[in-house]
Task: structure prediction
Amino acid sequence: MKYVAVTGGVVSGLGKGITSSSIGVLLKAAGLNVTSIKIDPYLNSDAGTMSPYEHGEVYVLDDGGESDLDLGNYERFLETRLTRDHNITTGKVYAQVIAKERKGDYLGKTVQVIPHITDAIQAWIERVAKIPVDPARPGVEPDVCLIEFGGTVGDIESMVFLEALRQLRFRCGGDNVCHVHVSLVPVVGAVGEAKSKPTQHGVAALRAVGLQPDLIICRSTQALTRSVISKISSFCMVPSSHVISVHDVANIYRVPLLLLEQRVPGLILNALRINRMPPDAIPQWKELGDRVEHPSKGSVRIAVVGKYTGLSDSYLSVTKSLHHAGIACDAHVDIVWIDSSHLEPETKEKSPKAHEDAWNALKSVAGVLVPGGFGDRGVLGKVLAIQYAREERVPFFGICLGFQIAVVEYARHVLGLEGATSGEFDPEANHPVVVFMPEISQTHLGGTMRLGARRSLLHPHTLASQIYGGERTIVERHRHRYEVNPEYVDRLQAEGKDGAGLFFSGVDDDEKVRMECVELGPQAKHPFFFACQYHPEFLSRPLAPSPPFLAFVQAALGRFVRKDVPQKDSAAAEKAAAARRAAAATSGVRLPSPLTVDGARAPHSPLPAVSPAAAGASSASAAAAAEAAPVRLSAALGSGPPSPSTSVFGEAKRFE
Result:
């Protein structure tokens, strides 16, 4: 096994993840099978219980692992499927060592950081590096493992991992470990002078722990001059050809091209003594970068209405998925961030300007997306945003909590169920249309949700079926502990006989009682109203956008046409997918990540047939209910949204 270790110096947030992913792209272009590992030096077992404001989004893997967002970069760039073990944390390592000590595996020895912790880290790396991760090459062990060391050189919590790297390199030999160090070269002063001193100090700190980098990636706002490169080379004892200037570029898809221009793949292949020709070009990435910078079909404004909008990394996979869909549509997606709490009447009293700005922003967009989240802050604002999108026929897409809130909104404002809400916000609600899943722990938060890749069945002749191209069975990643209350399902779609109201178009493939997708029927004349319990953003790729995101962006651009798509033959689709995988494994050609785990389609029980007319909701009784219901949101808006008479957590939202 060959390893490429990536460390960072001076400050965090330099782009080690993008650098590692870009190196992986270049090595794959050379015909190598590449995997990746992310090391996080915090004591948490994983990122599952961390606030997005602390660490960005929690990225969910096929096996249910809740990991660092950099694993999302690896999967998107390298089109791999990683596992929870590809994210190593201090908490995981110490828990493993302590568990072994309790079992007596150390035979009475004093358990210490060196050698027991460092040995555990090395053993973990060597074990995980051999796990096949490329869907196009099932069962094939990787050739090269990228290891990104989180944090910054010099941090006390990172020292044990750097020591483990030193030992790994000594034990495996210098020809099997290439060390890449990412450092900041700030540009200061009115004349824009690049300063190399921080990089010099960072490399000095590395040498103090016995490590000498093979390559230095210099992050800067501008390309480095020869004199600066020469100075870094001289003081850091690295050949000038191995000092790589990575300045700010228009989009991240330019980074692999920038590294290729400076012969990085050849340098790494030589360092690892791998007898492969480095790639001459990566045309698909050049085309990708060009399409991002120069879309030929305009732009579209899409609102992301959430509670963590103060940090865009909180919804990193969502934003990436929107951009992937934009690339496929050859259009630029302009994301408008809206703090959902600013849409609420309470904000109007405290901060009228923020309230007015939020509503003006919502009214200016061509599509509304409500992503996942936890907690009751800003929930009323999400209800209002969804009501606005439904009534004003603005394309709407809800994910996880957005799915649940869409059900709550419909129950209140269409069915007139007073007190309809989620058990997460009001355990004593009159109408708990969303409830806590019975098998989930109510005392432990970490790793206890419904997590990972789960199979869902789609009803034919529905929007969900159209979005997925007629697929009968799909697999998407989940992360939730609440679900639509099965006792309310019939009631929620009882008014859907004429195809104008709510309809649950997807269910789980296990018990067939968990609702996975919801939509408005074709007779509602809504351009696009779709929400899902799962997180499709985790399987979106630059060259293979997530189907729901693609359909949503098409709808926002006015290009989505509702139609009935013939359902695919599952057996034939599986046979064709197996043939493609076999051909790819033989030829070495990479295929886009499939919508299902390894393209597999398991046998399933047939769903009851649903006619197109029954694929929506709202009948004569619904019309009567609507007549007696409060006025529409649009009629009450005026210069701003109406004020509710009661709280979202108690009785139903009603407008006077």
